Amino acid sequence: MGRVWAVAKNSFVSAMRMRVAIVFVLLLIILLPIMCITTTGDNTVKGQAQSFVSYSLGLTSFLLSILTIIASCYSLSSDIKHKQIYTVITKPIGRFELMLGKVLGVVLLNLMLLFVFSSVIYILTLQIPRLSNVQSQEIDRLDNEFFTARASLKFDLDEFVIENRANENYKELERSGQLSESRSRQEIMQELRDSIRFSMYSAEPGGMVLWEFQKVKPFDANETIFIRFKANASQTPPDKNIYGVWYVGDYRQIKYGPEKAKTPIYAVPRKDVVQAVHEFEIPADAVAEDGYLAVVFYNEPANNTTVIFSQEDGFSILYKAGTFGANFIRAILIIFARLVFLAALGVSLSAWLGFPVAILCSLMIFFTGMINGFIVGSFAYLGQNISLFYKFVIEPLIWLLPKFDQNNNIGKYIVDAKLISTGFLTTSVAALAIKSAVLLLIGFIIFARREIAKVIV
Predict the structure, then answer these.
(1) Quick one: the chain helix, strand, coil %, rounded to 5?
(2) d(CA 70, CA 265)
(3) Would you call 149 helix, strand, or coil by DSSP?
(4) Residue 360 has pLDDT above 60, yes or no
C-alpha cells in the first residue's frame, strides 16, 4: 500500500500543477459568487435559489469531470511518452499498483476540489434569502419547498384494470362490427389502452379526475404535504388559465359513507397556467391513519375545455422526509462516485492508448452518459434484428456506460427538493464502483501484456 500511496501523491502533485486545473479552479472561484448574485430564476427567492443550485452544481460537476478526464488520461500516458515509466518499472512496484496509484491521485484531487466548491455552493445557497429583502411568507415557502427533502409518490395506473377495459371495448367493437379489417388486433388494442389512459388523466367541463394513493407516510402529521401537477387543455383558454377545485382527503367517505373515514377533506379552488408545473400544499392530517389519500380535480364548466394532466411529468404527492443539508451531501457523494468512475476510465484507456485517443474516447463516453436513455433506446430498437449479438456484445458495453440523465440527474433532485433515498444512493454508488473496478481490470489486463521496452543486446 505504501507504493500505491507514493504513486498517488506524485500523481496528485502533478495534477495540481496542470494549467487546466489552475484555470478550472480560478473559473469556479470567480463564477460561483457571481452566479449567486446574478441568477434570478422566475424573479422569486425560491426561483433564484433553484437556479443558482442548478447552474452551480452543474458547472462544478462538468468542470471537475473534464478535469478528471484530462488528468487521468495524461497521468499514465505522459509517463510512457516521456519514458519516465522506465524508471518506475525498475522499482519493486507492480503494474496494477501503478495504475491504482494513478487513479487514487486523481481521486484525491477530486475529493479536495469537490469538498471545497460544494461547501462554497452550500454556504452561498443558504445566504440567498439574506441577500434578498424577503418577507416571512417567502421564507416559509423556501423552507417548505426548497430547503428540505421531500419523498415523492407518483400515481401509477393499474395496468390490469386498463387491460380488462381494453378487452371489453374490443369485444364491443367486434360485436358491433366496427373493427377495421386493415388493422391488426395488436394495433387496435394499443389504441384502446392509450384512449383509456387518456380518459383517466383528463376531465371534461364539469368532470373530475381521481387519483388514489396508498402508503402515504408524512414525516410529521402537523406538517404539510404538497400536490405537484402539470395540466394542459384541449383548447388553450384566452388567458391561458384553467379554473378548478381540488378535493384532498379520504375519498372513501364519499364512496362508502362518512363512517369509513375520520380525516377531513380539504377543498382548494385554484387558477393555474396551462403547460406549467404547479404545487400547492395541504395539511398532512388529510392522510388517513392507514396511509390512504385521494386527490380529486373538478373541472369548472366555465373553462369550456377538457383539462388533461401530463403523463410525462406525472402527478405526484410530496412530503417532508429529510433535510436539505443531508440531501445535498448525498448528491455530492453521487457526483464524487461519478468522478471516481471517470478517473478509472481515463487511466484504464491511457494504459493502452495514446493521450489524444484516450481523452477523445473518455469524452465520448462522458457525453454519452448525458444521453444514456436515448442511446439505450436506440440500441434496443436495433437489437430486435440482431438479438444474439446485441445480448452478448452490445448489452455488456451499454452496461459499462455511465448514466447521468433522466432519473440520474442529481441537480434536479436538489432543485425540486426531492429526497435522494438511501436505496437510490447505494445503488448508484455501487453500480459506479463496480463499473470502475471492471474498467481498471480490463486496463490492467491489457497493460500487463503490453511491452514497454525491448532489451537490445
Answers:
(1) 60, 15, 25
(2) 58
(3) strand
(4) yes
Instruction: Name the segment(s) of the chain with CATH classification 2.60.120.260.
Output: 201-322
| pLDDT (average), residues 277-298 | 87
* H helix intervals, 351-394: 355-370, 372-382, 387-389
Residue 401 main-chain phi, psi, to 5 deg = -70, 140
Cell representation of residue 305? 375545455
Are the CB atoms for 196 and 166 separated by under 8 Å?
A: yes
- Using the structure block, give the residue that is written with the C-alpha cell 430486435: 384
Phi first, then psi: give them for residue 149, nearest 5 degrees: -135, 120
Task: Give the contacts of 312 (CB within 8 A, at least 6 positions apart).
Answer: none
**Residue-level pLDDT at 52:** 93
Nearest-5° angle of CA 339, CA 340, CA 342? 65
What distance lies between CA 14 and its chain's CA centroid?
Answer: 33
Is domain 201-322 classified as CATH 2.60.120.260?
Answer: yes
Determine if the pTM surpasses 0.90.
no
Q: How far apart are CA 255 and CA 137, in angstroms?
A: 37
Cell of 180: 377495421
Our measurement of the distance from residue 278's CA atom to the centroid of its chain's CA atoms, rounded to an integer in Å, reads 20
Burial 268-286, CB ≥16 within 10 A → b, else e = eeeebebeeeeeebbbbbb
Cell 384532498 belongs to residue: 248
